[in-house]
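Students often ask why we bother encoding 3D structure as a string. The short answer is that it lets us treat folding as translation between two languages. Here is a chain of 132 residues written in the first language.
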Amino acid sequence: MMVRSRFDGTKIAEFSRRLGEARRRLSRSVAVTGQELRGLSAPELEPSEEAARRAGARFLADLEGRERQELYDIQAATARLATGTFGQCETCGAAIPLSRLRAVPWARHCLACQKKEERSGLRPTFGEPNRK
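And here it is in the second language, the structure alphabet:
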């Protein structure tokens, strides 16, 4: 069943474009981060160089994880746009302000619910739907 979107065709096209641009930018960034991680697998290093390599690898892996989560969030927002639920808070059901969506088009929550989620530490892991 298709839900009627609160957005007209112009706004839907705007957010579709914004989400597509963000997805392309992040996809390139994930690819570069992956290349950098592979480049850090040098054969034999001095102990001090090895420690620096491990620290760099941890940083890049964390970055890649955050980028992949953001890609998942963008894909989920694109699906919500297609089903007509884009711009609706997944927790309370309220409309997410247009200004917030323009700043973070993949936002799942209104600002009040986002703050509650951040305080509670309930951010889902990669690929999981948000907990309610």
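Translate back mentally: The domain at 9-120 is CATH 1.20.120.910 (Four Helix Bundle (Hemerythrin (Met), subunit A)). Keep this in mind for the problem set.
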